[in-house]
Specification:
- The protein starts with 21 loop residues before the first strand and ends with a strand.
- 30% of the residues lie in helices and 20% in strands.
- It is built from eight helices and eight strands.
- By secondary structure, it is of the alpha/beta class.
- Helix 4 (120-128) runs parallel beside helix 6 (155-167).
- The radius of gyration is 18 Å and the shape is globular.
- It has helices at residues 56-60, 67-76, 97-106, 120-128, 143-150, 155-167, 185-197, 229-232, and strands spanning 22-29, 38-43, 83-88, 110-115, 134-138, 172-178, 203-208, 237-241.
């Protein structure tokens, strides 16, 4: 018989200790949660295999830190950090992420989720139950290039997430890592069009692929500055920024 989980216990998630979902913890960052001091929980595993992914160790590796160890760490950071960033890998793919989120909120932290948007129902549930405060949503590519870039068929799930977040006006940002071999000006123009169609109100961040990194697809270096944003004439706010 399956062991009953004790998610109501305020300080422990002992039944979750059988797995170690977290690959690593970055104890402090001022860059990953807008205007907040935060830590980052890197979840092992992902349901995509983006060719430009810089984190093959995290995507293919096993976690090393349990939820209990994570909560012990967070307990000691109460009053020192504003927020917790759940990143990865794909944190929303983890079966028991909701239980961790409940505990993190009980500790009083703001929560940001970095996601590829492949679990729209989970995002909806987390938002409705007030478990997350901010989302960074990856817009990998248009549908015709989605498989080539992510090795997944999850475009429609991503789109559902994008539409839902836009409809409810949740605080979120959309971002794309761009590579000259993968994204043309035309592709980015079409992606901007989609964001305009769903009435996205935030800033669309374009991040140049970071050359000379080990990636899942072993792709070659991208040309830098190959975009001309002025040519695209977007109706939404579009900005380049360094990769996060
Ligand atoms: S870049 Fe792609 S493969 Fe890497 S963690 Fe993000 S979604 Fe997963």
């Amino acid at each position: 018989m399956e062991k009953k989980e004790s998610i109501n216990n305020a300080n422990t998630l002992q039944s979750l200790d059988v797995v170690k979902p977290i690959y690593n913890i970055t104890p402090f960052t001022l860059l990953d949660y807008p205007d907040r001091a935060a830590c980052i929980l890197w979840f092992a595993g992902c349901n995509m295999r983006c060719v430009y992914c810089y984190n093959p160790d995290i995507v293919f590796g096993k976690g090393k830190i349990s939820f209990d160890e994570t909560l012990n760490f967070l307990n000691k950071r109460k009053g020192l950090l504003d927020g917790v960033v759940l990143s990865g890998g794909e944190c929303t793919s983890h079966k028991r992420i909701q239980e961790l989120l409940i505990k993190v909120k009980e500790l009083g932290f703001l929560v940001k989720v970095d996601t590829n948007g492949s679990h729209p129902e989970k995002l909806k549930n987390f938002i409705e139950t007030k478990l997350i405060d901010y989302i960074a949503l990856d817009f990998k590519a248009m549908q015709n290039k989605y498989f080539e870039i992510t090795k997944s068929n999850l475009f429609n799930d991503f789109l559902k997430s994008l539409k839902y977040l836009s409809e409810i006006n949740f605080p979120f940002e959309v971002r794309t890592t761009v590579h000259s071999d993968l994204h043309s000006n035309k592709d980015i123009e079409q992606m901007i069009n989609i964001l305009e169609e769903v009435n996205y109100k935030g800033t669309y961040y374009l991040q140049y692929y970071r050359n000379d990194s080990e990636t899942i697809g072993n792709i070659k270096n991208s040309e830098t500055n190959y975009f001309n944003l002025n040519e695209l004439k977007p109706n939404i706010n579009v900005q380049f920024r360094n990769y996060i």
